[in-house]
Amino acid sequence: MPRxxxxxVVRPHLExxxxxGVRLTGNQAAAEDLVQDALLRAFRGFAGLRNRQQxxxxxxxxxxxxxxxxxxxxRGQDTVSVDEDFDLFDTIVEEDPFPYSDRVHLDFLELFDxxxxxxxLQRVHPSHRTALILAYVxxxxxxxxxxxxxxxxxxxxxxxxxxxxQLERELWDYAIRNRLLVSxxxxxx
Length: 189
Description:
The chain is an all-alpha fold. Helices cover 67% and strands 0% of the residues. The protein has 11 helices and no strands.
């Protein structure tokens, strides 16, 4: 039977798949549905898995493909505009009342706990968010992300760049909107 051993190979990675699903979708119920969909797809394709000793990359690919398919079904082809001129750290320095502080950037980042970061990440375009999570949460290299997502390496590098820019902007806007910081306009009055 070609699917023999599926559970033994996949079970150790269920927690990882669920955590990745939560980070991609932003909520637990959607992550559960996504993981269930991915496991069904993995079961169907299990006979084609070449390296059963290290299936994590393959399972990550199956899950991200299921995520992208769901996005296509619900959102269609959307575009994203990214303010590439915005630089979070330059903005912080410009607005900092104590510009010689070495901690100003760290102080800003400490405003965000894990829940807030996941909330802000949901505002980043899904393909950019996926690249950011795979690179900065799970430590995949750009070539591995290209293999996982099926995108060319140049596209992955662009998604990482644009994702960082969009995340910086979203972090700044979130901080102002939620009064974690005093807006620059309020500080001047």
